[in-house]
Each structure stands twice: as structure tokens, then as C-alpha cells.
Amino acid sequence: MSRRFDLPGLIPVFPLPGALLLPRARLPLHIFEPRYLAMLDDALKTETRVIGMIQPDSFSEREGGSGLHKIGCAGRVTQFSETEDGRYMVTLTGLSRFRVKQEVESFTPYRRCEVSWEGFERDQQGTEHDPGFNRSSFLGLLDRYFDDRGLSADWETLKDADDELLINSLSMLLEFDPEEKQALLEAPSLQTRRETLVTLIEYALRGGSGEDKMQ
């Protein structure tokens, strides 16, 4: 983003399974629960307008923890509109991933966490590139996946999109399990995210068995 500001150490978090936000990507949200309407109202009053997207973690919950994954991604509210019945249509633009340090008890109806941005400095820089990306081979794999799922695509747009937009958009949009989405989120670089995405697509095509390897 062109506008620079310090990311806050305490942010509201929106636990939502399967919802993935990545730096510089846009995530549309339909907000209607009272606690999250309150969260949005409060976020809009701040300079940063930051909301942290994070996935629930059932293992942590069973072990008596917070029930949240340790890593999420914060986004800035860059677009919103209110419906006649009081719901919000919101767009979050990804800023940076964060690591949860601890959840903070408060009087707000939504959850808030103290977070660290350390280790995710690359997220706050410019567009990331993937020098080893074989686009034609990747699109061939994607074509097989879309055909298998009965999906259609604007192939000209996919061919022309830059590496980061293509990999991150597909990571967010394709239907994977929450734990698989978490693996895509936690990938340390665009290259490792692309490699993870390829593995997940290949696995989906195999249905857990057989071979359908990308060359």
C-alpha cells in the first residue's frame, strides 16, 4: 500500500475457518453478527483500520489453549458499504502476517490479541516475485484441476497476472481444508507458497492415491 503507518501491537481478530488473507491481496467479507459489526465500527474509528484474520485451531482448543492458530494476517478496511438492514459488505486489503503473543481480555464483544509483526517484514515491502516459476507448466496443472472440478477461468487474465497476484489469489480462492489454507498462509516465501499450492492441487487431483505429478 502507498500509505505507511505503524502497525498496532493490539488488534481485533476475526476467527473464520477457511478464510485466507495474504499481503496485498483483497478479501471480501459479509459482516452481520453483532459482535463483528461492533468490531468493524471500532476499527473504522482508528487511523489504521486494521482487522486481523485468523483461523480457529481445534487442537489448541482441545488442549485448553486459545482455540486460535498462532499466525494470522492483518488487513486494512479499504472499502465498505452498509445495507439497509444494517449489514456490512467489506473489503480487507492484506497488510502483513502476525504472530499471536496472547489474547487480551476486554469488555468488547469481539476478541482482541496482542501480536508481533516480527519475522514478517517482507510482507510490508513491495510485490514479491518467484524467479523459478514455470507458468506454462503451472497453468497446465491448473487446467486439469479446473476441468476435474467443473470450474471455468479467464485464462488470458491468469496468463497475464503477475506471480504474486496469481499465486496468492488462487491460494485464497481455491477450496482447500482450513489446515491446508493455514499451510499456504504460513509459507515463508512466494516460492514456497507456490510449491505448497502445487502439492495441494496434485493431491486433490489424485484423490489421495495414484499419480498426477507436475513435471
Automatic annotation (TrEMBL):
Coiled-coil regions, chain positions: none
Residue ranges of domain Lon N-terminal in the record: 11-205
InterPro entries, sorted: Lon_prtase_N (IPR003111), Lon_prtase_N_sf (IPR046336), PUA-like_sf (IPR015947)
Domain of life: Bacteria
Annotated protein name in UniProt: Lon N-terminal domain-containing protein
Organism name: Salipiger profundus
